[in-house]
Amino acid sequence: MGKTKRIKFGQDNLAGILMSLPGLILLVLFVVVPFFTAIVLSFYNVDFSMVDGPKFWGFEQYRRILVDPVTSPIFYKALMNNFTFALIVVPVQTGLAVLLAVMLNVKLRGIAFFRSFFFLPVVFPMSLVAIIWALMFSRDSLGMLNGLLNMLSFGFIQPIDWLGDPKIALLSIALLSVWAGVGFQMVIVLAGLQEIPLELYEAASLDRANWWQRFWNVTIPGLRNTLIFVIIITTIFSLRLFDQIFILTKGGPIDATQTVMYQAVTSAFVEGNVGRASAITVVFVVIIIIITLIQRLVLRQNREVK
Amino acid sequence: MTTHELSSKKEVMRRIRRSRSPKKVFKTVLHYLFLTFVTAIFFAPIAYMLIGSLKPTAEVLDGINGFALKDLSFANYLQVFSTFNDDSMGFLWRFYSNSVIVSFVIVFGGLIVNSMIAYALARLRWRGRNAIQVIIVLLVILPFEAIAIPLFYLLRDYRNTYFVQFLPFIASAFSIYLFYTFFIGLPLEIQESARLDGASPWRVFRAIIVPMSKPVFASVTILSFLSAWSSFLFPLMMVDDPLYVPLPLEIQVYFTQPPTDWGPIFAFGVILVLPVLAVFLLFQRWFIQSVAASAIKG
To answer: Partners of A44 in the beta sheet?
Structure first.
């Protein structure tokens, strides 16, 4: 390599800039500018109903969201709901994905056929998934899930108000979200499983390890990085929760399914309060950044351990 | 690699030998039964929609009898076709073409724009490259929800158009990142020698890089198509004229309008998802691979 003429840095200036330009312009216009607009707007009182335009408010929006005893509880309620949702969905969905992937990671005729069934909901738009489940969740005894539970319990379990009971609504949303998302994770875990060297399993077999021991001592450590990735994307996905809420519960009953994004959107869209919505957006991004930084730290530690 | 192959061959041979024993046959049958059971539970909501779309509404909402295969007809589909056939409700073909047009522009525009910038970042040496790389890595973290509100505010005068639905989604930091990691992994020799023979960067890109990169183009196509076709939040804020409403938003509108007529709503759902389902079944290997690839690289 050293003998041949190397292409010098700066030689491709024109081509590099020309080929990057379309993408750069679009990213700046539709991602960077909006993001900084959110930061700027969060310091203003901006309302579509106002005639005299935005008024500078300093940190008032943030004070109202984070500190004010009257207006902040609803935001914390939403944030708590997001985290509760994450606490349910992340372990359940990840665990289920691992079990499914292990179950489907066998050399059997037609296994691809089974795999694709679990991946199916991924090609369904969330709005359609929510509507299918709206009917599954019908609260009276004619509802699908209620009918099923009633039959399985020989009439013992009474009809549940899946989306109308404040104690259950968020769980119901979590249930349909796991159903919709688990196939995606399963595929990722399957790919991770195939990266684990077969020799490790053979060595474990020679050591007379049973299935369970092999699972805990070979499979799970081998999936470590995959699992960290899956957990992070599911956590971020949990913070983004919106479509299902908007279609099924509108944040109710009594704010049991309020989420950060749902509040941001309704603030802007229903109340016309763009300032508040922007401030919520900024807080949302800060939380995402913190989670990502934690991910980086964990991954780095992981590499050092290896 | 070779030891890998060897050991997997050994594994296969062992399985074949083992599979003759009755115990193994029994185990395999058990595994199939278990798989079928779990798959059936998982598939139930989709089956419910498919069956429900063929039944009168009263029989859809009837506990587990909703799965019963009786009184099947295409009446719900005909009703959907006749409902969405005037100016007040909008036209079914129009919702369809709205989704197709918007997704098409996002996917194809994105392939061109994102692969070009990724190549420039991965292989060309130019001023500003490093700074832009850093910015793109930062942007990958930012989910769309983080800019939805200001975008809505900035573009509020352009509601009910096509371009407002696709323009913000063409350039994607995530797609750029996928292209970038793929291009970085391509062998340098051919590219460098072509460059030394006087080929322009653009020619190298068109004639060498693109033909070598079919897998990543397929992955990006599938991933960006899935997100474009399912797009809900932004159309919800930006579109309410039936002339521009995409399918995932329209089914929500239909669902919200009383009376909630489940048979036709499910029929609408099937109509919405059927083409994507067909594409998925045809290219499922690609779908699954591209999701896996996105994770391993990400």
So the answer is: A56
Q: Which fold has domain B90-297?
A: MetI-like fold (1.10.3720)
Q: Which residues of A touch B248 (CB under 8 A)?
A: 125-128
Judge whether residue A303 has pLDDT over 70: no
Residue A94: its pLDDT value, please? 92
Show which of residues 227-266 on chain B sit within 8 Å of chain A, judged by CB atoms.
229-233, 236-237, 247-249, 251-252, 255, 262, 265-266
Contacts of A120 in chain B (CB under 8 A): 43, 46, 277, 280
Asked if the Cβ–Cβ distance from A24 to B64 is below 8 Å, we say: no
Q: Do residue B195 and residue A7 have CB atoms under 8 angstroms apart?
A: yes
Contact (CB<8Å) A22/B171: yes
Residues B145-165 have a mean pLDDT of 90
Whether chain A has a CB inside 8 Å of the CB on B285: the answer is yes
- How many residues can be counted in chain A? 306
| Residue B141 to residue B137: CA distance in whole angstroms | 7
Distance between CA atoms of residues B224 and B172, nearest Å? 9
Phi (first) and psi of residue B62, to 5 degrees: -150, 55
Tokens of B96: 């369809």
Superfamily of domain A71-305: MetI-like (1.10.3720.10)
Please, where in chain B does CATH 1.10.3720.10 lie? 90-297
**Closest CB from B42, B226, B292 relative to A117:** B42
Q: Which of A23-37, A131-145, B196-210 holds the top average pLDDT?
A: A23-37
ipTM entry: 0.84
Per the CB < 8 A criterion, the answer to whether B48 and A128 are in contact is no
Q: Where are the beta strands (DSSP E) in chain A?
A: 44-45, 55-56
Domain boundaries, chain A: 71-305
